[in-house]
Design brief:
flat; six-stranded mixed β-sheet; four-stranded mixed β-sheet; disordered N terminus
């Protein structure tokens, strides 16, 4: 649970929005009333409105849209990988999954449900002013449809979890159901801001109980880490970090997964006295002992140079630790999610 809700806000609300049609630009030496009193034409009960200004029309549009986004700032925290996992796993993404894919506003993005309604060039200052709005009722319905769809999918995954006899499959089904419910919690925060009634979409699934079941399942899934070659202790520690990050337990036998790693480190002949270098290679095989399957080997190799052996070794081990906790972890979790 890492990123704050402003990060989620940017991912959720900078929608693949569409300017249904570009408004013509008015010009003049006096600002129009809508710059200072936008709600006279677009009442708060029906619209969320943002005013923006900038050196170009596109800059002004981005500021106006960003000002609408600021309305949604909150302190809800969400797992930063949840949204990525959901986008990867949902093949029939509609409104919310489409808008999750946008991480920042740019002038050439499609912005669904945000309309650029007014544009004005203030000749006295050489600035553009823009009014953007979001239709509350229309957007509320899009949120409601997608949250109800998420609940239906979560129910399907939850039923599959209940019926499965394979503990790895049970974990995957349950995790997917929980992710969808967590996603809905975040969407509900937006929904309540947009909703004219301030309602919340309730889920019939017992999220707290499901979280307890997930922790119990994590404790049943064991990983054995085997390391050979150079720097065995450090490589073992790094792989233990990966396992701990996922939540599985480290075991010495009867493992559901085996991480079998080998690290080879050899001095490189650089023909120079002022630089030290090493050729190195890490290969990690992952065995799924439950399903009797070996994943494709994860391999890292490179030549690393520095002004001293200690600096070169430090650079190598930093790289190895970073890659195991990022790319290796990602590849392993992709396999897990597809079980």
């Amino acid at each position: 649970m890492k990123s704050n809700f402003y990060f989620l806000l940017i991912m959720l609300f900078l929608f693949q929005c569409t300017y249904s049609q570009k408004q013509s630009i008015e010009k003049g030496g006096q600002l129009p009333q809508w710059v200072h009193e936008p709600h006279k034409s677009y009442p708060q009960s029906m619209y969320l409105v943002g005013i923006g200004s900038g050196d170009t029309r596109l800059d002004a549009e981005n500021v106006a849209i960003g000002n609408i986004a600021k309305i949604f700032q909150a302190t809800v925290k969400v797992d930063e990988t949840l949204l990525e996992n959901y986008l990867e796993s949902d093949e029939q993404s509609r409104f919310t999954t489409q808008m999750l894919n946008k991480t920042r506003v740019t002038s050439n993005q499609d912005l669904k449900n945000i309309t650029i309604a007014k544009s004005f060039f203030y000749e006295n200052e050489g600035l553009y002013y823009v009014l953007a709005y979001l239709d509350r009722m229309e957007t509320e319905e899009l949120y409601r449809q997608d949250m109800e769809s998420n609940i239906d999918k979560a129910m399907s995954f939850y039923n599959a979890y209940k019926e499965s006899q394979n503990k790895l499959s049970r974990y995957v089904f349950l995790q997917k159901a929980i992710d969808l419910l967590r996603l809905n919690e975040a969407l509900n925060t937006h929904y309540q801001i947009i909703s004219t009634m301030g309602d919340k979409i309730q889920s019939p699934l017992p999220l707290e109980e499901m979280e307890r079941d997930r922790l119990a399942l994590l404790n049943q899934i064991g990983v054995e880490v085997i390391v050979n070659g150079d720097k065995e202790s450090e490589i073992r520690d790094y792989l233990h970090q990966v396992v701990g990050k996922i939540g599985f337990k480290i075991v010495q036998s009867d493992a559901d997964f085996t991480f079998d790693a080998r690290f080879d480190l050899n001095p490189a002949d650089l023909g120079r006295d002022d630089i030290t270098g090493y050729n190195w290679k890490l290969t990690t095989d992952v065995h799924d002992n439950v399903n009797n399957y070996m994943l494709r080997s994860f391999t890292l190799k490179n030549r690393t140079m520095a002004i001293s052996p200690d600096q070169a070794l430090a650079k190598i081990m930093n790289t190895v630790q970073k890659e195991l906790n990022s790319d290796f972890n990602r590849q392993f979790m992709e396999y897990i999610r597809k079980l």
